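User: Second chain of the day. Same drill as before.
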Amino acid sequence: MSGSTPFYQKHHRHYDRGYRSKELESAVSQYQSSSSSSYAARRSSSRASASAALSASSGHVVALHERTTPIPCSYTRLSSSYSGLEESRLSPMPKRAKPTYLAMDKENQIIGYVVPIFRGSQEYASGFSDTEEARVKESAGYMARRNLFTSGLEMERTEQTSRKVSMRESAERISLSKRIYENEEHHKRMNKDSLMHAPEFVIKPRSHTVWEKQCVRLHCTVSGWPDPRVVWYKNNVTIDPMAHPGKYKLESSYNVHSLEINRCDFDDTAQYRVSAMNSKGELSSFASIVVKRFKGEVEEALPMPRHGLISEYGITFDTHIVDGFGVSFGREGETMSLGATVIISPNLARYQPEVQWYRDDVLLQPSKWCHMHWSGDKATLTLTHLNKEDEGLYTLRITTKSKYETYSAYVFVRDADAEVEGAPGAPLDVKCQDANKDYVIVTWKQPAVDGGSSILGYFVDRCEVGTTHWSQCNDTPIKFARFPVTGLVEGRSYTFRVRAVNKSGMSRPSRVSEVVAAMDPADRARMRGTSAPWTGQIIVTEEEPAEGVVPGKPKELEVTEATKNYVVLSWKPPGERGHEGIMYYVEKCVSGTDSWQRVNTEIPVKSPRFALFDLAEGKAYSFRVRCCNSAGVGEPSEATEATTVGDKLDIPSAPGRVVPTRNTDTSVVVSWEASRDAKELVGYYIEASIVGSNKFEPCNNKPVKGTRFICHGLVTGESYVFRVKALNAAGLSECSQESEAIEVKAAIGGGIPHASPTPPYGISVLECVRDSMVLAWKQPTFIGGADITGYFVDYREVINGVPGTWHEANVKSVSDRAYRVSDLKENRKYQFQVRAANMAGVGIPSLPSGTFVCEEWTIAVPGPPHDLQVTEVRANTLVLLYKPPVYQGRDPVNGFYIDIKEADAEEEAWRGVNEKAVLTNYMKIKILKEGETYVFRVRAQNKAGVGKASEPTEPVLAETKPGTTEIVVDVDDDGVISMNFACSNLTPDSKFVWSKNYEEITDDTRITVVTSGGKSKANFNMLAEDDIGIYSCAVTHTDGACSSYTLSAEELKKLLELSHDHKFPIIPLKTELAVELQEKGRIRFWLQAEKISANGKIEYVFNDNSLSQGEKYKMNFNKDTGVIEMIMESLLPEDEGTFTFQLQDGKATNQSSLVLIGDVFKGLQKESAFMHKEWHRKQGPHFVEYLSYEVTPECCVILKCKVGNIKKETVALWYKDGREVKGDEKLTFTEGVLKLEIAQISKKDAGVYEIVLKDDRGQDTSTLNLTEQGFRDLMNEVFSNIANSSTALKIQSTDEGIRLYSFVSYYNEALQVTWHHKDSAIAFTDRIKSGVVGEQLWLQITEPTEKDKGKYAIEFHDGKSGLKRTVELSGQAFDDAYAEFQRLKAAAIAERNRARVAGGLPDVVTIQELKALNLTCNISGEPLPEVVWLKNEREIVSDGHYVMKLEAGKYASFTITTVNTADSGKYSILVKNKYGTESADFTVSVFSPDSKK
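Assistant: Same format as last time:
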C-alpha cells in the first residue's frame, strides 16, 4: 500500500521510519505484498461507506491533497488488519478475534510492533451494514467518489478479494502469535535467572499534534524480565483513570502498553512520561502532545456568563484608578504582583470593563510568565518568575465605552546572584528569527552586568520540545549577539537559551525563547492560515511515481549576514525541480582563485539558508549553491560578490555628554547625546555611582532606546555620577564620560531649569536663484541655558508692500545658521523670520527680515562670507572664524580678506588686516590695542575679483578677561602628550569643545578627550606629523572661555623628545658601579647617583638573581648623598659573575653593572683574602719581614725572617711542605730575626717553607715558596757559586765511552750546564749524553768515533753571564781514552742498568700526631724499576690516608696526609727491575703533643 501522510504529521520527524529496525521493515514489506489484495477490498468498502455517511450528514468531505509520500509499511499492515476487525464488528457476520499488533518474519519470530495510527479515522469512516453498503455502491454519488479517490487497480483488487480470505488470514496470524507467546513464556519459566534484565523500550512513545476533540493514543513496547510495571505520567503527575472517568484509558497486552486520551482539549497539551520498573531497574521515555484549535472556532463546552453581559448603551462610566502600584524592584527568579483598585461609577454589579496590561506599550497576553486577574474592583498582574525581559514600564488600561483610564509605573529587575562569583549576568530577550527546515537564527541582548571582567562571549543551547536535555550549539564562545543554529531536525520544535561567560565563569542561562518549529516557512504560514473544521477523516490518495527531474539553478543567492565568526547565505529554490523535494550543496571560493570547494560534502541542507563557519578572518570569499535530488546535482547558481570575512557591524561609539537633572527624592532624570553613526542600535545601559565609591551599578537591566531615562532607587541626599553605554549586536560601547555629580533631592518646581532661547537676528541673503534663497542669521544673544538644538525658518510673500501669511520653510530643525528656502517664485518679494529651539522648547521668532527679491544672481565675484564668530579675545589678539560664501561666482573662491575698524568709526575707516589673501576659514588678528572696541568683516575673492563684504561682527572689546587661562601642553610620566584647558566659570550645561584648525574634532583615532569637572585634557594617541596644526578648546555656556595652541614641526620634535625622556626617564649617575677593598678585606660595591629622591628604590642583582639584606650582603643607601653600596665580607667561588645595581625613582630607571670573572675576580678574591688575613695576623705575633733567603759563598742557603709583637710565650715553628723542621733553637726572640740554614741545598730541598708564630693572641704564618720560579731564582745564586768552584775539564774512559768531567765544591741537581763541541752546543742524543755524579759533571760520548775529536767546553748557567771550562780531545789523548773505553765497556753494562734507590730517605722520622708526612727519594734503573712501599713488611695501598706517587720515573714520594699513632712503624721502599732489586728502610715514630709534654 502507498499513500499520503497527513499534513500535520509531515513536519515532524517523529513520524518517519527511522525509529524502526531494518528487520522490521523487511518483515512488514513481505507481509504487505502478500496481503495487498485483501486490503484493497476492505479499503474500497470502507471508503464507500464513509462517503455515503458523510454525504448524508454534513454534505461535504474534506480531502487533504498534500504532496503524497508512501505511508510506512507498518501503517499498511495495521490498516489492513484493523479494518477487517471493524467491519466484522459492525456487520451481521460473526465477530472476529481481537487483532494482534505483533510484526513477524518468515520464521514466525516476533520482530516488532505495529502502531495503529489511523484507527480513529477508520472507525468514523466505516459505520454501515453490508446491505447499506451494497445499496450505496449502486448510487451515482458513490461512483463519482470512487473515481475521485481510488485508482482502477484498487477497484480491481476489491472485486477479487473476499471477506473469507481476510478472516482466515487474521485467524492464522492470531493462532501463530499465541503459539509464539506461549513458547516464549515456557522458556522464561525454565531459565529465569539468565533472562532477567532491566526494562528496555523496544518501541518508545512518539509525540503527536492533534486537533481539538480528537482522540489520541500513545503506544510503547517494553521488554524486561520480570515483567516491568508500567506507569503513565502527565507533567510528572501520575495519571489516574479513575479520577477522570472517560478521559483516560490504559491498556497493556503482550508487553504493549497504551494510553488513550478521549476528546483532547488545550489542557491536554503536555509532556507525557511512561515509566517501566522491575527488580533490575527503572527506565522512562517521554512524548509530547500538542492540541490545536482551528482559528475562529468557538468551543461549545466553554461556559457562558451566568447572567449575561451588561449593555453600556445610554450609560456614561467614570473610571478612577486608586491605590496603584509604584515603582517596583525585583530580582530574577522572584514572583511579583502589581495591582490597583479600580473605581467605576455608576457601580454595576455584573459589569466588567476591558482590562489590559501593557509593558513598554506592548499588550501582554496571559502566559506561564504572567497571570492576570480581575476581582470586580481590583486588577492584578502576577509575574510568576521574574526575568530581565520583564523589566519595563507597566501600564494598566481600564476601558469602558465612555473612555479609558491608564496608570503606569516602572518595574526594575535585577540579576539573580551569580552561581560563580564574578560571573556575568544572564543575557536577555532571546528570540528566533528566519526559522527554516533545519536552521534558525538566535538573537539576544547583552547583559548590563559583566561581573567585573569583560564578557568573553556567549554559548547558545537548544532543547527539543518534549525533552529536558539541553545541548550546546557552539563549541567556542561568540561575541556577536546573533548566531545561526544549524543541524535541526525538520518537523521538530525547539526552544533556545543563551549563557554569557567571562574569565570567572558562566552566567545563569537566559529565559528560554518561544518555541520554534523547524519547518518550511510556507508550511508554517499555511498552518497559521484559516482552515476548514476538522472532520475526523483522513483520506489517503496514491500518486503515480514520476520520472526524476534534475533541479535547476537556485535563484537570488545573497550574503545576508557576515561576521568574523560566520557568514549566512540565503537563496530561493529553482523553478524547475520536479515533484520530489530538493536539497542543496554550498560551495565556496577564495577571492582571486578559481578553486571551488564544497562546504557541506557529507550532508546536503534542506533549507534555502546556510551558515558557514571556520572561514579565515580578513579573507574574501565568493559563494554559490547547487540543488540536488535523486535524479542528480544541478548546475550552480550565480556566484556572490566577494565578501570579506569580518564584522560588518561595528560596536557603537560611546554616547555623548551625560546630563543629570533632579527629579524626586529617590530618582534622577538622566539625558545624554546619542551615539554617533550607530548602526542597528539596540539601546543604552545607564550606570550610577556614589561619588567617591568608584563602584558603578546598573540603573536598568533592559536596554532603553531613548536618550532620556529616569533612574530610580537612589539614596536621598547622596551625590551620584552617571555614565551611559550603547549596545548593538556587535557589543557594548565604551562608557561615556561621567556626568557632573548631582545630589539626589526633589527638583524645585519639578521642571527642567532651562528656558527657550531668545530670537536670532541679523538675517541676510547668501545666495539667490530663480526659485530659492539661502539665508543666514546670527545666534541668539541668550540661548536659554541649554544648547540650541536647531532653527526653524518661516517666510511670507510681500505683495505691493503688504506682507502675507507666514509659512514654514522647514519642518525638521536645521543645526547650521544658514538654510536654503526652496519653492519660491522668481521676481517675488519675501520676508523671513527665524526661531531657535533648545531642550526647553522653541523660542519666539525673530523680527521679520528686510524684503528680499527672489532673482538669480549673475555677478562674477563671490557672495559674502557668513557666520562670523570672534573667539580667543585677548588684550592684543583675537581669532576670527567665518564660513565661505554660498555663492562662489563664476570661479571657486581662492582666498579671503579681513577688514577691521573701530566700532565707533565711520564706514570709511575700514582697513585691511592682511595684504595677501588667506586660504583658511580663520585668522588670528594681532594688531589690537588693549581697551579698544573693534568690528570685523570678511570678503572673499575668486579669479574675477573680490566680492561683497560680509555682515560686520558685533563690537568686540580687546581685553583679557579675569580668570582667562591658556592651553597648557604637558607630558606626563608615561610620556603621554596632552593639551590641558581649565575653566573656572562653568555652568551645569557647559561642555568643552576641542577643535583642530577650528573644526571640531569628532574622530578619536588621533586624539582622546577626557573631561572631569572644570578641566579637559586632549591626549595625543600617537603624536606624528599628521597632528601638526592649530588646536583650540572652547567652553560652551560661558563668557567666551577659549584658547588655542599651535603645534608646529619644531614643537612636534621637541615634544617627541620630551615624551621619550618622560616615558623612559634615566636617573643620572656621578659614578658607575665600582668595587674596592676595605679593612679586613671586605669588598665594597658602590656607586653614586647624581639625583635621586627619598622614594627611590634599589634592587641588587647578581647573575639575574635578586639579592637581599642578610649575613652575606649588607646594603646601604644614603639618600642625602646618593651613595649606594653593598658590602660583602669575602668572595667565594660562587660569587664570580656580574653584579648590577638597578635604580628606580618613580618611572625613572637606571642601572650599572660590574663584571667580575676570570683573572679579575680571582685577583680581587686573592687580595681580599690577603687583606683579611693580614688584619687578623697583626692582632697577635706577626712577621715584620716575611720569610726570605740568603746564599753564602759556601753555597749554604739561610732562610730568615723578622718578627714583631711577640712575647715570652710566643713560639715559632718551622715547616717544609707541611712537616715540621728544626730551626735555630739558640736564637732569642729579642733579636727579632729567625733563621733556618740549609747547608747543601738540592732539589729535594725545593718546597714550601713555612714558619708559624703563635701564642694565646693568635698566630701568624710566613711562607716561602721555593718551588718553580722561586726555587729557580734561589738556585741561580747557588749555581753562580758552584760555577766558580768548578775544576778544569778532564778526560776519563768509562764502560760506555769517553767521559769529560769537572768537579765542583757542591753540586745541585737543578744546575743547568751546556756542553759545547767545536764551539757549538751539543745536541744530545742517545750516543752523547751529559750527567752528574756527586760533585762531578760529565759528558759521556758513547761509542766514540773520529768525528768526536775536537775541543769541548762546559758552560755553567747562573742566570747571568755564566762560566766555561774547556779541554782538547784529539790525538794521543783521544787514542788512550778510546782504548780504555773498550776495556770497561763490557764490565759496566750489567751494573749500570740495575735498579737502585739513589737516596733521600731518612732512617728515622719522628713526627707529631695530626701532622702531614711527606718523604721523597730518587730511584734509577733500566728498564724503569717497579716501586712498592711496605709497612711492617706489608704492602701499602694508596688511598686518602696514604698517597704514593712516582714522578718523572725517578722521584718516588710517600705522604701520610694526617699522621696518627697507628702510623708508627718500619717503612720500606722496594725497587726492582730485571737487573736487580734494592730496598731502603726508614722508621716513622708518631708522638702525641700531650704525651710529649
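The mean pLDDT is 80.

User: Great, on to the next one.
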